[in-house]
Design goal:
This protein has three domains: 28-181, Rossmann fold (3-Layer(aba) Sandwich); 193-265, Elongation Factor Tu (Ef-tu), domain 3 (Beta Barrel), CATH 2.40.30; 284-494, P-loop containing nucleotide triphosphate hydrolases (Rossmann fold). Helix 9 runs parallel beside helix 10 and helix 10 (311-325) packs across helix 12. By secondary structure, the protein is α/β, with parallel strands linked by helices. It is built from 16 helices and 18 strands.
């Protein structure tokens, strides 16, 4: 080492003095740490109040504008208002229960089991950070961006990241050279292509690999096979398996333990003699769906599929058959999220059911089909069909989601249509309404989400499909083939 480099090297005392000086001159509000510093936008807290505890070892910074927007959105009975109030309660619990000062950061860890190990920082001083002239300071989003710029300048050695559900705000932040991310913790899957479909195709050599010491027996009129092999520990209970070829097989997994599984053959609902309220399955997935819908041991069913795959028709046919013919349930209750595709038409007159009627066009369309199929023209003419329609309509109740909290449904057949527009929390609220003897069926298409801030990966429908798979009393099917008309099929693929 040269003499010049030795003379340039600071002594131990100089290093200690420099550290003390830098600590003294450090900006008040955030302490220097190795973890990232996440600045939360208001929409993150209003989307998921528990997001305060989801950043593990990293710190969180809340600008004063975030707190102001939380305060302005706390009034009302909407889901956004409830989340704003819950976020405020969490913040009050964190701040009031801490012995450390706000300037030095408050520990987010409330219990030993909590994963949050970072600290919470609140804006405690006026920040006059430099903003580009093109960004008006009167806008709340721009003030939060100004806080991010200020924090980045004060802590150049630390990663300061803006977290927002607002796409345009993230674009603006990135255009200014700032790091910005979406809130990913609520996403069940990053790629919905790997979402559980409920169906598995068996290979041609399936019986050779899994048929060792094969056992078979009859139970309730169906054949059961106990298979042992590599596939036995991969399948889930109530997952459907099929094999095409000279000896086709369609079966469902009934038991699974270790390297052993029991599969059971299905009722073939494609045959006219097994038609459900005059409806028979037109493809393999519809047959699987009807087996789930008609099974009294299955309490929860989810059906995914594009428009025209028969989700609502199959569900209603199975419901009418079990309510009117088998007397398994007392009535059908149907509800859906009232999110308009275009401009909202405003308030609607009448009772709860009359207000929901415009949203239930799919129900009326399918009832027209079922009324014509289940009651042939020769059985009573127009009067007979009208009387049958009145009887059917009397056993179907239309309910609004707004009045579901606190209710308990006993021996009901509950249909939740357009379930892709529900958040995971709303989905939990609805499913937990089910009392003894109630079956819940969720229908939807995750490619048609109309609710703001919800994506295919964070939808409540995706959430329940992923969380309920493998439970012995739940089943799921993704319907792949449209059966509406050749025009609808071609438009769905070409447009």
């Amino acid at each position: 080492m040269s003499k010049r480099s030795e003379s340039a090297r600071p002594t131990r005392g100089a290093v200690k003095t420099a550290k003390a000086a830098s600590k003294k001159n450090a900006p008040r509000g955030v302490t220097k740490a190795a973890g990232k510093l996440f600045v939360l936008d208001t929409n993150v807290l209003m989307h998921d109040p528990t997001s305060l505890f989801r950043f593990e070892e990293h710190d969180i910074y809340l600008p004063m504008m975030t707190l102001e927007e939380l305060d302005s959105n706390k009034k009302g009975v909407s889901e956004v208002a409830r989340n704003a109030r819950q976020a405020s309660r969490f913040l009050d619990e964190i701040v009031s229960g801490s012995e450390s000062s706000i300037q030095s950061g408050i520990e987010l860890r409330r219990q030993p089991a909590d994963s949050a190990r970072g600290r919470l920082f609140l804006q405690t001083e006026a920040i006059n950070g430099p903003l580009p002239a093109s960004l008006p300071t009167s806008k709340a989003d721009n003030q939060i961006i100004g806080v991010v710029i200020w924090l980045q300048q004060k802590h150049p050695s630390r990663r300061v990241i803006l977290v927002s559900k607002d796409i345009n705000m993230r674009i603006k932040a990135r255009a200014l050279g700032l790091e910005a991310e979406d809130y990913f913790n609520d996403k069940v899957l990053e790629d919905t292509d790997i979402l559980y479909t409920g169906v598995r195709e068996l290979s041609a050599d399936f019986w050779d690999k899994n048929g060792k010491d094969l056992e078979s027996w009859k139970q309730d009129g169906r054949t059961r096979y106990r298979i042992k092999g590599p596939l036995a520990n991969q399948v889930l209970v109530n997952e459907f398996v099929y094999q095409d070829g000279a000896h086709p097989l369609q079966a469902a997994v009934r038991e699974q333990s270790g390297r052993s599984a029991v599969i059971e053959t299905l009722i073939d609902f494609s045959l006219p003699r097994n038609a459900v309220w005059g409806i028979h399955a037109r493809n393999r997935e519809q047959n699987f769906a009807l087996n789930l819908l008609m099974d009294p041991e299955i309490d929860f069913v989810t059906l995914l599929g594009q428009a025209g795959t028969g989700k609502t028709l199959l569900t209603l046919a199975a419901g009418l058959s079990q309510v009117l013919d088998e007397k398994r349930y007392n009535e059908i209750i149907m509800t859906r999220v009232t999110v308009p595709v275009g401009e909202d038409i405003g308030f609607l007159p009448g009772t709860e059911e009359e207000k929901m009627a415009p949203w239930m066009g799919a129900l009326e369309d399918n009832l027209d089909v079922l009324n014509g199929v289940g009651n042939e023209p020769g059985s009573g003419g127009d009067w007979g069909r009208a009387a049958a329609r009145d009887l059917i309509r009397a056993r179907i109740k239309i309910k609004s989601l707004n009045f579901m909290r606190g209710r308990t449904f006993l021996n009901k057949y509950l249909i939740i249509d357009e379930a892709q527009n529900l958040t995971p929390k709303q989905m939990k609220t609805l499913i937990t309404r089910a009392g003894p003897g109630t079956k819940v069926v969720c229908l939807g298409n995750i490619a048609q989400i109309d609710t703001p801030y919800l994506t295919e990966g964070s939808s409540g429908l995706t959430y329940v499909v992923d969380r309920m798979k493998g439970w012995p009393h739940a089943g799921h099917i993704t319907l792949a083939r449209g059966e509406r008309s050749r025009l609808a099929d071609y438009a769905g693929s070409a447009l």
